[in-house]
Amino acid sequence: MNPIFAALSIPPSAVIILVVMVLLVFSLLMIMVSRYRRCPSDKIMVIYGKVGMNKDGTARSAKCIHGGAAMVWPVFQAYEYMDLTPMSLSVDLKSALSRQNIRIDVPARFTVAISTEPGTMQNAAERLLGLKAQEIQELAKDIIFGQMRLIIATMEIEEINTDRDKFLAAVSSCVETELKKIGLRLINVNVTDISDESGYIEALGKEAAAKAINEARIQVAERNREGSIGEANAVRDQRISVAAANASAVDGENTSKANVAKSDATRREQEAEAQRRAVTAEKLAEAKAKEEAYAAQQLAEKARAARELATQQADIIVKAQIEKEKKVLEAEAQAEQARRMAQGEADAIYAKMAAQARGMQEILSKQAEGFSQIVKAAGGSPDAAVQLLLTDKIEELTKIQVEAIKNLNIDKITVWDSMSGENGSPTTANFLSGMMKSIPPMNEMYKMAGLKIPEFLGKEAEADQTEAPKEEATEQ
After folding, report:
1. In the CATH scheme, what is the code of domain 85-197?
2. Residue ranges per domain, the chain?
3. pTM for the complete prediction?
4. Which of 27, 169, 182, 292 is most buried by a 10 A CB count?
């Protein structure tokens, strides 16, 4: 043992516990130091996991830190960085439809970056964390394309081409509002050039150039005219003064002055004619420029009308074809369903009839086996076998005969018996006897079956046989 601990009378177990506690505290301290993360100025640190609650009581999805540091607890939390480097996007918008229904091409370049505003930065953590720079650029391009088409559809080409500040302000406002929803901010917008397929913008440029040239020519002509008039007035005043001073002395000078005046008049007439021709030429050029612009606009309107007609025809025809195919498929489905139901019913009927046929075959087979056994018991004689069957059923046959008059309801019978029966027998007795004879006798039933009555009933059989010739003789 260490002499120091021995001198302090500290037991070895306490020393071990103390060393373990010191190691645990040192380990926890090292873990905390290793999990303390600092965020660079060009990045956003996103801590996710168990990061606390919002003001409304819901769990926070992430905690965003820019330009600071925070403790990232192990197991419960994790972290990632999002780069704040600006991204330059080349957005070449093609065939965007303006308010005048003229399609234009607007190539532009946008500079965007992840925003550091608190709310927008939270949107970036929720929607852009883990995405690559190329994926973020594609997402931003989709948003920019949609907003630019929307803005161009609300403006005329003259506004887009001439008032670039208004167009860029509208683009910046709408695009930045949509980009903030995914955590981005718009830094710069630069529209390089605007063109259209119909040549409308080029016609506007030609019209503006022709107008500027005409105005410049008019101003030059006016300045020349004013200079000429001023110069002529100065010369005239000078000559008039000189002529007035020397009028009385030199008559010839007056003549020359008149000639000079006539020459000046001729010169001014020529200048006026030249001015008139210049103004006429300028007006003609301006009218021709407008005519070309109107022709270009007319061509654009015709193209738009043709496109609208083709679009409407395609919508109607495609819709009709879809409806037709839908009805054909429904009819085929109904026919297939009816066919399958009929097939099922036919299979059920067939199975039922087959089962009945098998049952009937089985019954007939068993009956045939029974009749075969009866014939064997009768010594191989079919007649004897039939007599055995009838003997077995004689009780039921008798019962059937009795049942024939059992339920006969005779409420009241009134008989005036004149004793005129055969051999003086009463008529009432003959009535009852006749009623009983109306039931087929046993020997008649045997005869109808093609059999002979058994010998134990021989007397009746003989009586029947003796009566039969009498009846035949009577009939003859």
Report:
1. 3.30.479.30
2. 3-81, 85-197, 201-332, 382-475
3. 0.39
4. 182
